[in-house]
Write a structure and sequence with these properties.
single chain; about 325 residues; alpha+beta; five-stranded antiparallel sheet; four-stranded mixed sheet; 12 strands; about 25% strand
């Protein structure tokens, strides 16, 4: 009996030793020759593509217009940061009507998410003057233009990120390397070009400066009212539009606009057409005319709302 127990003990030891030397199949990792290894360099991996509307300034106007872009998102960055970087870089070279908004050397350091809020940290170049700005911003031109540029910059940021569905509001932070401060939050003086050191609260989407159909119609009628033919010509669709000189002559010969009001307007189901209803007061040919409930039909061209030139000509010469 004693020899039988010793034999059983030896067999058990052999079994245990075998188990330790041969791990289960699930722990064995095979490196097959046809399976590529992933590179530690994320730049070698294919980037994701993000389709988004980026907002930039429309010429020298107080409005922002969208450019539909395909943005590359590298594997080591978030889509939110990629969008901010694209905004800083400015519009595509083909978009001659759009202007960049950020001062040179501006960089985005980080973008973090907390609930429906994005916290965006820039370097202090954001606070710099633009290259064409003088030291004194209190003159008649710059007292309006300088704050407008900075407001449009922030509005473009919120419009782009909210339209992409990435947040409902943003908090802008500025990292200043050699400045001691209790908060990195952007100061109110940034928007007003003053020494106001009050901290800005969260920024949300604002429609005031977006080139919506209503604002596009407003810009068009204001150009007619002030006889700004260059702006008016730019808001006419390129299809069927004569040369600038010919159009300017036609505008000079048309009736004058002395006043107007606009309703909100509606957009078609496919998003390519819009109608804004206007009340206009015209002067010319020895009589004054009031046009009530006049439909201004707009078409989307290159992301911008334009008016067909033939319709524009008919409106300006309405009897």
């Amino acid at each position: 009996m004693k020899h039988f127990r010793i034999a059983l003990l030896l067999m058990a030891m052999l079994v245990l030793t075998g188990c330790m030397a041969s791990p289960p199949d699930t722990l064995i990792r095979e490196n097959k020759g046809d399976t590529p290894l992933l590179s530690a360099d994320t730049h070698q991996q294919n980037p994701d593509i993000l389709s988004a509307a980026l907002y930039f300034r429309y010429g020298a106007s107080p409005y922002l217009a969208p450019e539909q872009r395909q943005i590359q998102v590298e594997r080591n960055e978030s889509p939110e940061k990629a969008l901010v970087k694209a905004l800083i870089a400015g519009p595509s070279a083909t978009q001659s009507a759009l202007s960049p908004l950020f001062p040179p050397e501006t960089e985005v350091i980080s973008v973090t998410t907390q609930g429906d809020t994005l916290f965006i940290t820039f370097n202090e170049a954001l606070l710099s003057r633009y290259p064409d700005e003088p030291k004194d911003l209190t003159g008649d031109e710059w007292r309006i233009e300088a704050p407008l540029r900075r407001q449009l910059c922030m509005d473009a940021l919120t419009a782009t990120l909210t339209e992409a569905g990435m947040c409902t509001r943003i908090q802008v932070l500025v990292y200043r390397e050699n400045v001691k401060t209790t908060s990195m939050r952007l100061h109110a003086g940034y928007l007003t070009c003053t020494d106001d050191d009050a901290l800005l609260t969260f920024l949300g989407r604002r429609e005031e400066h977006l080139l919506t159909p209503h604002n596009a119609a407003k810009m068009l009628l204001e150009a007619w009212l002030s006889r700004d033919w260059e702006t008016l010509y730019g808001l006419a669709s390129a299809q069927g539009r004569p040369s600038g000189q010919e159009a300017y002559q036609a505008f000079d010969a048309a009736r004058a606009l002395t006043g107007f009001s606009l309703e909100a307007g509606t957009v078609s189901a496919d998003g390519q057409r819009a109608v804004v209803t206007a009340r206009m007061y015209l002067q010319g040919e020895g009589m004054d005319t009031e046009l009530a409930g006049y439909p201004i039909l707009l078409i989307r061209e290159g992301g911008l709302w334009k008016m067909d030139y033939a319709r524009l000509d008919a409106m300006m010469n309405h009897d």
